[in-house]
Structures are given as C-alpha cells and as structure tokens.
# Entry
Amino acid sequence: MTDLLVTLLAAFTVWTGWRVFRVDSMVRASFSLMLSFIAVGGIGVLLSAPYIGVATVFMMAVEMMVMAIFMVMFMMNPAGLNPMSMVHQHRFSIGAGVVAALGLGAAVLLSSPPSNPVLSDADVVAELGHELLGPSMLIFETAGVTLLATMVGAVILSSRQGRFGNADEGSRPPGLSPDGEPAGRKPDNGGEGHHHHGGHG
Amino acid sequence: MIVLLALAVLGTLGLGAVLVVAMDGRIAQLAGQFARQRIETEAPDRLNRDLAPVWYLALAAAGLSVVPFAPGHALLDSPVGIVIWGTCEALTIVTVFLHGWAPNAPFPLIGAYRYVAIALPVMLPSMFVLIAAALPAESLSLLAIVESQREIWNVARQPLGLPLFAIVVLTLTLRGPMDFADAADIATGTSADESGSARALWEVARAAMLVSASALAATVFFGGPLGPALPGPVWLWIKTAALVAAFAWLGRRIARTTPSRMLTILWVVLLPLSFLHLAISGVIAL
# Structure
C-alpha cells in the first residue's frame, strides 16, 4: 500500500515537474512546481518523516507564492496571464538535463543505501529536533543566519526609502503608446522638483 | 471511532458554516446566488477559477481534522498536528490568490495581490504563536497541547497569543480589518467577477474556515475539549461558537486601513510583538 502510494506520488511529482515547463504562465509554472513539492512532502510523510514532509509542503506553499509574484514582477508578463514560453537556452538546458539525469540515475543504481527501518514506536520528530539542535547545530544555524541575512538584504534593496532619497525619485512611468506621454500622474515642472530632501549620509 | 470523528468534523464544519452565514445575515443573499447566472470573464484560467472555492473548503476541513474532539481523539492524530494546521494556513493564501488571479479581471487581481502582500507577513506571527503554544506541551501534537492545558489554559499563561492569533483568523477568513481580498473598496475584490453557485460556495468556504480556525483557537488557547461535567465535543463546540462570535464581532468593529499602513503595522509592530510573545512563553515554559 505504501509502495503504491509512493509510486503514485512520485509519478505525480514528475508529471507536475514536467508541467512547469509546458504551461505558458509564470503563475501556473510556480504552482505546478508547488504541486510537485507537495507530492515530495507526501512521500516524506510516508517515509516516516512527518515533520520534514509537512514542513516541506508549508515552506513550498509560502515560497512558491512569493516566487510567483517575483516572477510576474521581473518577467514583464503583466499579471502572469499573458502567454509566454517557459523554456530558453534550449541546447544548454538539454545538455544539463541529460547530464543531471544520467548522474542522478547512476547515483541511484550504483550506491547501496543502508536498510535501516524506523521502529514503529520511535519518536522521530523529537529525534529530529535533538539532531538539529545537537550534532547538526552548526550547519543548521549557519544556514539559518545566512537566510536571515539574505532576507534583510532583499528587504533593504527593495525598500523605497534609502540614504540618498527615495528610490523612485526622478523615475517616469513608460508611455501609454511608443514614445508617448508617460502614464499616470504628470510630473510637476515647478521649482519643487529640483529641491532635494534628505541628508548626505 | 474514526467514523464518529469524521462525522464530527464534517458536521461541525457544515452546521458551523450555516450558522456563521446566518450570523452574518446573509442566508437569503447566498441562497439567491444559486439562482443567478454565472459571469464569464475573458480568457480565464478555468481550472483554478472552478477549483479555488473547493480548495478553500477542503483546507478548512483538513485544518479541522487535526483538532481533537475529545481528549486523546482527533481524526488526524499526527505528531505534527500544529504544523499541518500551519500548512493549511499557507495553502489558504495560495488559494485566495488563485481565486483572484484566475478570472483574468482587474478587481479580482488587485484583491489577490493586495491579499498576498498582507497575508504572507501574517504567517510569521501565526507561526510564532503556534510554536509558543507547543512549548509547554513539549510537542507539536495538538493532543499533547490539549493535555498540557489541564491545569491552566494557554490563554492565561500566554496572554499575547490570542490577540495575535485573532489577526491570523481574520486574515484567513477575509474579514474586517484584514479583508484585503474581498473588500468593498475594490468591488468585492477576488469575488468581483464571480456569481452563481461558485460565489455561494466561496462564501460558504469562508464561513467554514472561520469555524475551523476558531476550533483551532479553542484547542490551542482554551483547552479544546477539556471541561467539567459535559462531554468533550460539547465543550469544544461551546468554545468554538464563542470564539466564532468574538472573531466576527472584532471583524465588524475594527476599521480597515490602507494596505501600505497595514504592512507597516505587521512588520514593525506585530512581528516584534510575536518575538516577544515567543520569548516570554519560552521563559515561562522553562
């Protein structure tokens, strides 16, 4: 029963992973990838790793939501509903895909993973906690602090306010037609526009 | 036992949702939706548009399935019950986003983006509150969290928990000050271009999510099924009903501010508050 479920989830993982490159929108691609990871989380739960499995689903839901928005923002695909291709650099990606598939396939076929079944009464969640905050504390905390620094950096970079004034100062929205008038509010031409606020920190 | 628990989950969700809709005085409005024709927008994402209300309802049911209806008995008796609830919260954001994105229309899309911007930072206090509730129990299982409240409820020893979680509940159910998805100021946002049975189902799912989230709040802060004389499920229903009424009242009483100001409140006030809450709860639990 478990074997069948794992097989079905693995097939779903591959199919949704393939869908990521076949759909025509950033939002659809992101959430196809999310479905793929949800199936991976399900496999984790079936392999007696309930915390890692469920946490994978949780993290991927939040992460793919953020990713969908960032991709729509940076890919000039307004709202993510305009059809666009999800594949590029065809030759390089085919080569990378073949190498990765052969490498991972060889790793699976040539390695002999240990057969170490989890005891049914083992408290796997508590053991994972002891491992993460015991022997693996250094790796865990290093990864955690690195991610935190990344997040703080991303927030600062995307902030409108900066030490040299607002990030959008002097910027103009694109025209409604090619070389046309800028969309939105008209910039004022009075003396106010040349008056700079803020310090010279 | 499993059949009984499944019936309890479905019954609570169904009856609770009907009562929530009645409390909001919208029974006639929703029943009228069934007679209405469906609006078609230009080039929608049909799959996600049709599935979003179903996902919302399913997430409410999945969230309620980890809630113990009697001490030691939950439909989904998982060692990581509270993480499963957190997963339902995160997937709810995705569902509301897809509900607004799929119709391919301006107001739903504005609602979807506005909601995501507000709801993602709400996840952080939510996680801190839930982790803090797990600290005295020394377990992520909701059954253990209920057991840890035999002497004193979490609402008393973690006073910041319930107010912070109230914000999470209002966000998950698109209510009052946290309703940035379906608010009147953008013509009901993600639901603006939806009518007929799909719209009715979406409103029912919102009501069901309020029941589910209130049941979880009752479990995490008020000892869930624990109580004298009456059987466990009855205590859970009483506490859930009281919390549903309280959250609905809060949603009606508090005004909604602009998304940008709410974003500042969330990051600058509520996030440090939830850090503080976790620190205090941790010290008390030690």
